[in-house]
């Protein structure tokens, strides 16, 4: 990554004050004023924030200035602390599940639509307001057990106050984000041998999509990213006597207990650990993950959780790329939507691709980045916050296409300007043409150049 040298100290102070004031205004507007139905204003605000972001990360900042920018990045997140998410309604399910758990009910066993008029509603302090906010009242919850624990603790501490519940949920993500920034600044560059002038921590920390979608919109990918990076660091720097990388396995299991997707990275450790150590590592991840699920274990858990995951891959559609093209072909051939076939088939293709990548040469971070890229390009649903993990891995591996992708994803909010929501497939096509074009350039032509 080529950077231009910073100007003198006076210029730097002017820039840092000017950019910070614009950032404060932009994040305040998105966090407290702009609903997702006002797509034009929202995209314009995101555009200004990404312009400022681009101007900052295009310069090389000395260590002192870099630390100042990282504190400002944390400050932008703190601004959003007291906001109610306007761009996502997922938090209604977080609070719903949390209230069930804090009342002693297993959230994996109950459909909201089945219990809204039952005695459980009053006992768990559920409400019609929460029910009407749910985007999936007829589906069982798909959030893994550590997520549920964080939901339950936050709900219990909030005492029924919804805003306080939101703030407490946000604190978990904010703490994880601070940890991620610290890891990327201090520990990971040493073990990954990242050149000092890449400023990977700044590329991640100041990214507007990362700030808004994680801390702002309460998406727990922020917690997952932190523990995945801890696992990566511990693989390269295991504790003394930890030859099997069990500490790393524990960190990866914790990440998977928040979002299951990190399990996709297990094949990439085979070459580094060797067969015996790798089997032990995988067994440790599986065992620890099972311990997280243990309080909820029942036959119904597996049936309900599996049913909801199955529905996710066979029913939900949003901002897809290759799937939309294949769906169109399916309409031509059969006259109906073939998602029931395409969803599982594309998932299987991802697994095959990951196994192929596992036996290819390349760094661990590069393989993780490629695996997630493949997964999202073949997915039937790609919400904006999904790409935040790519931004982190891209910053650590010196790839820019995740940054471009993050800058284009606010365009997807155009869908919510319509009632009922309707995607603009021209914008979706523009998004993926640019992203895939940048990806091909970075992994193909630029690599050879």
Condensed summary:
This protein is mainly α. 67% of the residues lie in helices and 0% in strands. The chain contains 22 helices and no strands.
Give the topology, please:
Elements: H1 9-32, H2 39-57, H3 63-79, H4 91-102, H5 112-115, H6 119-123, H7 128-133, H8 145-158, H9 162-192, H10 200-205, H11 208-216, H12 221-236, H13 246-256, H14 270-273, H15 275-293, H16 299-314, H17 322-334, H18 339-358, H19 364-378, H20 388-397, H21 401-408, H22 425-448
Can you describe this structure?
With 449 residues, this protein is mostly helical. The protein is built from 22 helices and no strands.
Secondary-structure element order, as H and E?
Answer: HHHHHHHHHHHHHHHHHHHHHH
> Which stretches are low in confidence, meaning pLDDT under 50 for 5 or more residues running?
1-7
Radius of gyration: 22 Å
End-to-end separation in angstroms reads: 14 Å
Tell me which oligomeric state these chains represent. single chain
Number of discrete helical segments: 22
Keywords:
single chain; 449 residues; mainly alpha; globular; disordered N terminus
């Amino acid at each position: 990554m080529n950077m231009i040298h910073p100007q003198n100290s006076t210029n730097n102070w002017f820039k840092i004050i000017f950019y910070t004031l614009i950032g404060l205004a932009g994040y305040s507007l998105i966090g407290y004023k702009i609903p997702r139905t006002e797509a034009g204003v929202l995209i314009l605000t995101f555009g200004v924030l990404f312009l400022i972001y681009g101007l900052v990360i295009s310069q090389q900042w000395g260590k002192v200035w870099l630390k100042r920018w990282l504190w400002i990045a944390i400050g932008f997140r703190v601004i959003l602390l007291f906001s109610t998410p306007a761009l996502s309604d997922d938090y209604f399910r977080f609070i719903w599940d949390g209230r069930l758990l804090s009342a002693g009910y297993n959230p994996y066993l109950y459909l909201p639509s089945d219990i809204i008029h039952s005695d459980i509603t009053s006992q768990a302090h559920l409400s019609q307001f929460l029910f009407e906010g749910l985007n999936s009242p007829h589906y069982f919850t798909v959030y893994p057990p550590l997520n549920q624990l964080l939901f339950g603790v936050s709900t219990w501490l909030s005492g029924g106050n919804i805003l306080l519940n939101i703030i407490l949920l946000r604190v978990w993500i904010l703490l994880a984000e601070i940890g991620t920034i610290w890891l990327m600044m201090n520990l990971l560059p040493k073990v990954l041998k990242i050149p000092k002038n890449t400023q990977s921590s700044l590329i991640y920390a100041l990214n507007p999509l990362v700030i808004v979608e994680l801390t702002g919109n309460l998406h727990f990918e922020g917690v997952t990213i932190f523990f995945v990076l801890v696992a990566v660091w511990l693989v390269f720097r295991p504790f003394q006597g930890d030859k099997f990388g069990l500490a790393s396995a524990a960190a990866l299991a914790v990440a998977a207990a928040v979002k299951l997707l990190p399990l996709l990275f297990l094949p990439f450790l085979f070459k580094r650990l060797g067969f015996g150590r790798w089997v032990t590592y995988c067994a440790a991840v599986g065992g620890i993950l099972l311990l997280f699920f243990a309080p909820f274990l029942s036959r119904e858990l597996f049936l309900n959780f599996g049913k909801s995951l199955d529905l996710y891959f066979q029913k939900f559609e949003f901002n897809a790329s290759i799937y939309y093209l294949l769906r169109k072909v399916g309409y031509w051939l059969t006259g109906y939507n073939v998602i029931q076939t395409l969803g599982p088939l594309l998932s299987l293709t991802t697994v095959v691709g990951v196994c192929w990548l596992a036996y290819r040469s390349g760094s661990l971070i590069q393989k993780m980045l490629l695996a997630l890229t493949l997964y999202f390009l073949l997915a039937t649903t790609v919400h904006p916050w999904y790409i935040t993990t790519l931004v982190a891995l891209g910053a650590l591996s010196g790839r820019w296409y995740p940054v471009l992708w993050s800058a284009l994803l606010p365009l997807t909010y155009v869908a919510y300007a319509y009632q009922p929501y309707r995607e603009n497939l021209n914008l979706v096509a523009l998004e993926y043409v640019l992203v895939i074009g940048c990806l091909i350039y970075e992994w193909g032509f630029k690599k050879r150049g």
